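Amino acid chain:
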Amino acid sequence: MIRQLPSLHGFTQLVKINKGYSPDSKYVVTVGETRYLVRLSDLAHHDKRAVEFSLLQELAKQGVRTHKAVDYNLFQEANVSAMVVSFLEGSPADEIIQEHSDSEQYHLGLAAGKELRKIHQVSPPQKIHWETTQLKKFSTYLKAYQQDAYQLPQEAKLLRFIHANLPLLKQRPITLLHDDFHLGHIICKGHTYNGVIDFNGYDVGDPYHDFYNLALFSRRQSIPFCIGQIDGYFSSAPDDLFWRLYALYAAMTVFSTIVWTRHYDPRSFDDALERIHMILLDHDDFSSIKPSWYAKNLFTP
């Protein structure tokens, strides 16, 4: 199939990527001096992949540094779609962030926050009722959690906080979401930001929802990056509404993380619990909406 793709004619190297949870097959293909990323997907995902390809084109118009859309083809007999995009050179930030100084980590976060703001300027491919969608999703995860053998000691306090703040979900703006925006998907070239990858899990919804991975992942790896992402996104200090929604989404993700990890990746459950306890500590079991690690202007000259 790859030989039949016009954009990859005469390729000299093909390397399979065995990283991530996606069911797609991914390859890095070299043509001359240029590398491309190829994603082969089951045709059952064709609609979503076709929208993703068009979104990459829109993101390019917005100036977002990510994969450039090159080619999209269907192979009906093989029941496969093939998406060809440019390969983003560099290393995932989570693998090299500790090699950076605090100031470099902060400025990497600043660049990421500014990019996230651009992503949220792209028109969403569809409209949804955010409150209804989130309540249904949370209810499903909570039910699954309550049927599980593991129960969080802080469960009652956490649920009180969530239910008290659920009215904030009403009438939120709806934008395109990356929906998995964290250090593992930020690409660095040298010590500088070179782009963001993996839009295949894109979603639509409240733009503030794209910050929940700060609490779940990035905060453990780099507090300066997290502060930078927030400072880069906002032109002035975030208001109380942002922090309330940030805390709400962080609290809700505690239950979904427990359920998802127990079901799909039980071997990493201890690691998930470590990240969850860090969230609880950062928010003093959600008696505080602003995480203890955030400080405005901490890393600026």
Observations:
- The longest strand covers residues 34-42.
